[in-house]
Amino acid sequence: MDNFELYNPVKLIFGKGEIAKISTNIPSNAKVLLTYGGGSIKKNGVYDQVISALKGYKVIEFGGIEANPQFSTAMKAVEVARKENIDFILAVGGGSVVDASKFISVAIDFSGDEWDILSKGANINHGVPLGTVLTLPATGSEMNSGAVISRKELNEKRAFGSPYCFPKFSILDPTVVASLPKRQLVNGVVDAFVHTIEQYITYPNNAPLQDRIAEGILQTLIEIGSDVIDNPSDYDLASNLMWSATMALNGLIGKGVPNDWGTHMIGHELTALFGIDHGQTLAIIGPNLYTKLIDSKKEKLAQFGRRVFNLEGDNDLEVAKQAIEKMQEFYTSLGMKTKISELADNAEIAPQIINDRFIDRNWLKLGEKGLITPKVAKEIVEMSL
Ligand code: NZQ
Ligand code: ZN
Fold first, then answer.
1. Among 191, 199, 302, 321, which residue's beta carbon has the most beta carbons within 10 A?
2. Sheet of 169-172, strand order
3. Quick check: 126 and 109 in contact, CB under 8 A?
4. 270 with 340: CB under 8 angstroms?
């Protein structure tokens, strides 16, 4: 096992009716910026619960944060927060609202060009405290310190992370899952699944506990995935999806083991170029990335096949191939498309653009063994057209 440090200060508040606890977790004299998305919270009753829990607080609302949140929108919120001297941010929404709010939190007191936070990994030394009410189980953003922000005019989608981005608290009430459209539920199941495999399908590293936690998350998602998509108001299914998605990316399972974020890095480019949903990009790229890198990942792919899909056989390469097929079948069974061209008219521009962007950003050796060069990324995208 590799050396590691684990730090996660997020207070997680889980369960039905827990949104009311907002008030015991925000200082009573705080001026709160309430951030949210395109309005789903006003239709499903979450907004009303939040407003009633915020009774007595000074609240400034900032709605309209879009899926794949835009830098320009987040900067409008930063201006409001600076003008109003906001001292707490409450994000109510999915990963997009939470991510935008993390960026807003650290950009408020940032001196310099705020885009540098994303494009240059500029140093961050302060964040306005943030709390979240999660409405979409998928990203794990509610319990991690990362965020992903897009900039349409540059066709860019970039990630950043800072310990200042950890929410002070996150409230996870699984009843919010009931109002999710099927497409977002599918995205959520696949996003959580891929977060788990990107910290697991690398090479054996003598970390059986991390492996078994990862396998437990994967098995749970396979067991409940299609049921929760069909019955999102089933509380037991919704709560297990929510907890699985948080556990998939709260920093625990990737400690002490190699990680490979290649599927995500390539997937983000497809969202930036074509607006394809995040979870859908992962379902397209993942199986092709594993096929391309099967020789270097075959031991863990075979372990994944045997332990998660109960495949049999002694030959790792053969079991690894079947495991990739099973992964693909799982995504397809949930309703995911398998090709970029099913979702974008000009898919053929992607391989070269992604190759060039990876070179520009000096992303020359992604993956746990540095095998995802810009050329390999290009070939994976070509397989996905
Ligand atoms: O905007 P509203 O009206 O709220 O509607 C949203 C949005 O249209 C809707 N929705 C959310 N909760 C709902 C609901 N509709 C009905 N009922 C509810 N309870 O769902 C749509 C999608 O929401 P979004 O927040 O965009 O989805 P998700 O949570 O999947 O977040 C995706 C974003 O997170 C980033 C992705 O790249 C993408 O930008 N990621 C963030 C990560 C992180 N911070 O750790 C890691 C991930 O890998 C990912 O990259
Ligand atoms: Zn993801």
1. 191
2. 11-14, 169-172, 130-134, 88-93, 31-36, 58-62
3. yes
4. yes
* pTM (2 d.p.): 0.98
The predicted pLDDT at position 275 comes to 96
CA-to-CA distance for 183 and 204, rounded, in angstroms? Answer: 34
Q: What is the pLDDT of residues 164-183, one digit of tens each?
A: 999 999 999 999 999 999 99
**200-223 pLDDT, tens digit each:** 999 999 999 999 999 999 999 999
Torsion angles phi and psi, residue 153, rounded to 5 = -65, -20
Q: Which atom of ligand 1 is nearest to the CA of 179?
A: 17
Mean pLDDT, the chain, integer:
98
Given the CA of residue 150, which atom of ligand 1 is nearest to it? 39
CATH number of 180-383: 1.20.1090.10
Q: What is the mean pLDDT of residues 255-272?
A: 97
| Cα distances (Å, whole numbers) of residue 253 to 113, 199, 214, 262 | 34, 7, 6, 17
CATH dotted code for 11-175 = 3.40.50.1970
Task: Indicate whether residue 298 lines ligand 1 (CB < 6 A).
Answer: no
Q: Pick the residue whose CA is nearest to atom 39 on ligand 1.
A: 68
